[in-house]
Design goal:
Elements lengths: L7 H12 L5 E3 L2 H4 L3 E5 L2 E4 H12 L4 E3 H23 L6 H26 L9 H15 L4 H21 L7 H17 L1 H7 L5 E3 L2 E10 L2 H12 L3 H27 L4 H8 L14 E3 L7 H8 L10 E3 L2 E11 L2 E2 L2 H31 L2 E3 L5
Antiparallel strand pairs: 1-4, 2-3, 2-11, 5-10, 6-7, 6-9, 8-9
Helix pairs in contact: 1-4, 3-4, 4-7, 5-6, 5-7, 8-9, 8-14, 10-11
Amino acid sequence: MNNRRGIFFPILIIALAMVLSSCNLIQVNEEKDRKLVVAEVNGVKIQKGAVLDQYHAMYGEVEEYDEKTLAYILDSLIEEELVAQKAESAGYVVDDEIKRRVNEDYELAIKEYAEMLKLQAGEDADPDTDFEQQARQELQEYITASGQTEEEYLEFLGKYLAIQDYLDEMTTDVEVEDKEVEEFYQTELEFQKQSPSLAAQYSSVAIVTKPATRLVKHILIKIADEDTQAITALRQEGKSEEANTLREEKLESIKKKAQNVLDLAKSGEDFEGLIDMFGEDPGMKSEEYKDGYSMVRDEGMMKEFLEASFQLQEGEISDLVATDYGYHIIKVYEATEDEIASLEDVKEDIRNVLLNRKKSGRTKELIEQWVEEANIKKYEKRL
């Protein structure tokens, strides 16, 4: 089965998330309205019930409907119907081979979900638990909740798979060059190194397989809290130059003390003792951070503090590090570096990601062209 993702539903979900912030809610008489024709695609009618079913599948039973969301769903159904017509006319229909693939994929999905349930249960799981049966039951409950029977769901998947085969055929000339793969690798490598937290959520290919970390403790020689608050207020007002001037002025007043403490730290004085004696960060004396601050490169800390920490190796002590809070003297207790997958290891994964993107772009262009050429009538006021 081709690994490219579907075109319609991801786009629809993103669009729905965007429009819900400006809802215009309406009430619908479902019993009366379900058979209303809300669109025609080359003579094929789309009833309001199909729109409502899609809405319920995403949001459950509701008393009021968002008008813009209904319109987005209708546009999606129109595109699906149009592409289905194109696919069928080209001979891409639900035949025995498609049914076999659907059943195979369905059973594979159950097995994979069962494995996930087993992992989640952990070592304390009941040894008699039939995780595959549990997975099958939960999936069937999901299908029922979406308003379909298992047979209807598999039929839908078959139609969808036939459409995907057709779209794959229509985009067979799409290719990805080696140069594109290399550029993606370098761009993603830099992003994943500098922003590991974001990369964990959004990167489609893991290039930095384990991000660099630092475990640090520090001695903070503070400027007055009211001065930090004043500096913060200036930055929030967009007055960075004034904030920097005020910071430099306040830092100068504590620099001599901070330098004396730094000299003690560099001379080999016990760092823990210096924290107790001079440190003004309450976190360093809390139970939660008794072992230090553990961080990756995009941790939610002051930029200067992070940059200085990652320039140090295990056992090293920084020079004075200035932030809006004062001067920091940082010692690294543990340091790990980025573990990086080679281009050779991930090039095919990257190629697939780029190929899917290009195919999706080409498919979008084709659908726009087909919409222009088709005989489409929309009756949005009936929504």
